[in-house]
Amino acid sequence: MKIAQISTNTIPVPPKDYGGTQRDVYYLTEELVRRGHEVILFAKKGSAANATATFEYPTDIPSEQLDYIIQNLPEDVDFIHDHYGIVARANPPVPTIRNSHSKGVTGVQIPVYVSKIIRRKYGNNKGYSVYNGIRVADYKFRKKKSGYLLYLGRLMEQKGVHLAIRVAKRTGKELIIAGTLNDKKYFNSKIKPHLSKKIRYVGPVGGERKMDLLSKASCVLFTSTWDEPFGLVLIEALACGTPVLGFRKGAVPEVLKGMPQLLCGSTKQMIAKVKSRYRFPGPRKCRRYVRVNFSDRIMTNRFLKLYKKIITEKQYKLIKNSQWNKRKQVLQTNPIEGAE
């Protein structure tokens, strides 16, 4: 198949540090190409995925990015996988899905969500759900752990960093906090006053530093108090052989379905589980769980099955007067600068 992958214009593919959407695009692109499919990638400048052809957006204006895609998309493309939204909303005359990596999407024919709960809650049960996947080999595995707890993610109230601090204090454990500071007011009032030799904030991390922290931690605390669409840190920690405790919020119960002992109904229960960590699954079991359920290959299998289902069942409606066709007619006489 010839498949177009439409990434955002915020972070290159693959991302150097954070970038869940772009990481999904990267792993999916690499695996599709490995299987013999042609992948046409549209992404931010600096992207370096192993696509058949890569087109980097020459502008930051979404309408001009859409025009650029229209002029460069091969006529014989079989399927469009839009992780951005600008293509799916234009209704191109090609089977197209809009992959939402967060909440609900509107104005598209076939939405795809990263979890069942998000599809139900924000998508009115329309469309499909396909879980995120990672390349397990990219994650450092370590059987022997250090004694610290780890929080990895954005520093904002709905992520519950203050709850991770509470767990560390009540259990007497060392806590390392890593991630981007998104809410200074929250940081100054709920996090900074508790920082000490045992509770440390190390800033944003990526690459080897991130892998070291994940693989050496005795446990990762996933303390989000909102409906997480997926929670990539969950499977990243498990891939490193590290157990991760999470609240029963959003997609967490789906992701940890096969490891119910890691689910917590409250901060009090999370504290109790940290104290009795002998009940945690072992490092090899954690890693195997990701390989069987959330690897890049499993994710690609699911998407290929979905592509073929949509094409075979002719679920996609060809709209004659779509925004795509109208813009294409204009561009045929007035091509934009930077388009080939």
From TrEMBL:
Report the SUPFAM superfamilies cross-referenced here. Answer: UDP-Glycosyltransferase/glycogen phosphorylase (SSF53756)
Domain of life per record = Bacteria
UniProt xrefs under Gene3D superfamilies: Glycogen Phosphorylase B
The UniProt record lists the Glycosyl transferase family domain at: 143-257
An example of a Pfam family matching this protein is: Glycos_transf_1
- InterPro entries cross-referenced by the UniProt entry: Glyco_trans_1, Glycosyltransferase_grp1
Q: What is this protein called?
A: Glycosyltransferase family 4 protein
User: Which species is the source of this protein?
Assistant: Paenibacillus solisilvae
Lineage of this protein's species?
A: Bacteria, Bacillati, Bacillota, Bacilli, Bacillales
